[in-house]
Amino acid sequence: MKKVLIISHPNFTNGLKIIASEIPGISADVISFKGNLFEKKSLFEKGRLLSNYDIVHFFWAYIRLFDLLYFKLFLRKRIINNFIGSDLYKILSEGGFRKRTELRLCSHLSEYAVTGGILKNELNELGINSVRVDFINSEIRKREYTYPSEKVAAVYLPSMSKDVYNFHFLLKLAENFPDVVFIWFPYKREMNEKLPGNITTVEYVEHEKIFSFFNEVRVFIRLPLHDGLPNTLIESLNIGRWAIWSSDHYGVSKAENYDELAEHFSILIEKEEPNIDAEKYVTEQYNLKKISWNFSELYKLNS
Known about the structure:
- By secondary structure, the chain is α/β, with parallel strands linked by helices.
- The chain has helices at about 15-20, 45-50, 65-75, 85-95, 95-110, 115-125, 165-175, 210-215, 230-240, 260-270, 275-285, 290-300, and strands at about 1-10, 25-30, 55-60, 80-85, 110-115, 130, 150-155, 180-185, 200, 220, 240-245, 250-255.
- It folds into two domains: about 1-135 and about 285-300, 3-Layer(aba) Sandwich (Rossmann fold); about 150-285, Glycogen Phosphorylase B (Rossmann fold, 3-Layer(aba) Sandwich), CATH 3.40.50.2000.
- The longest helix is centred in the middle third of the chain and has 14 residues, at about 95-110.
- The chain is globular, with a radius of gyration of 21 Å.
- The mean pLDDT is about 90.
């Protein structure tokens, strides 16, 4: 039986531990790369930790080229770098030529996996092949829910990334649809910031409360310039919400500019019944058994 070590970003560690326990035909352990578990170890300590495993899966794709050379050439481990979202964006937007070159060099020493089609396309543009393995850090299953009578929309727009998430679209949409209540989350108020009266703000939605939060809205909007496969998108569809996103997905309306957004929104906000087809699709495709099977297929590649 193959032994896999998943070295995870802390935000995904608990979810990956649940998945790891269900992967058929694979023995998998999960640790966080933060703190003494991995990040602060010396290169030789890392080597000893990896020595008992056949495959090392970095679930956030941040690994130094020097470390990768050691793991691959001296320890002869199969290495998988997994991009989730903003990790690839930071390399492509902030790193410049040196970082892009380093990314290409790493692609010769390791394999790349991605969540979502946007990341796969961005790697393709650099001439780097990747395997798509979607991951949702949540429990996707058949759920009981209600559908709201009021016209309420939720907009995912981190305050620290306004430009990336098309902040100006939200302001214009609120102005053009004054009878709709827009909930902006996660939100952190800036000094003297003024918002239209029909925009309410929520600083943070706890993970265990996300489904009850979405239960109060008809439409979920997420329009970043760059994205992986968002938990929030799948979670909203899991309880039959209508969704608008900046990429393609089953049961989702795609909007790449404001005119497309306004056109889709004007139709979806009037819906008085939930998005049953999308709910059925994500419940079948993103449940624990399905995701665990996808991880198993990834680890069996090239064997």
